[in-house]
Design goal:
This protein is an alpha+beta fold. It contains three helices and six strands; from the N terminus they run βαββααβββ. A hairpin with a 5-residue loop joins β2 and β3. The two termini are about 15 Å apart.
């Protein structure tokens, strides 16, 4: 099952995001091919990141939550608000898949 994490940074946390980014990328690169489906920053109108979206495919929500909680962005306390929800892919690149 897929799970989506949507996270919004704390106000004024741009320096913390930049400082923690190398560890965040290394963490998820180690998971690519296993459980990470896709991820990236949420961008404001000015192009600056203000949050993150990550989708993992794993057996249950507890495992998805454990993956997200070990993310260096989370352990650095970057996020003000996070939501974790099951996710079902219906369209991919314009094609109906479910």
């Amino acid at each position: 099952m897929k799970f989506v994490l949507i996270a919004h940074d704390k106000p004024g946390a741009q320096a913390l995001r930049q400082q923690t980014r190398p560890a965040h990328l290394a963490y998820w690169q180690a998971i690519i091919g296993a459980e990470l489906v896709f991820g990236g920053p949420l961008l404001g109108a000015d192009g600056a990141p203000f949050g993150s979206i990550l989708v993992v495919e794993t057996e249950d929500e507890a495992h998805a939550r454990a993956l997200f909680e070990a993310d260096p962005y989370v352990t650095a306390d970057l996020f003000e608000l996070t939501t974790l929800s099951p996710f079902r892919l219906v369209f991919e690149r314009g094609a109906l898949v479910a």
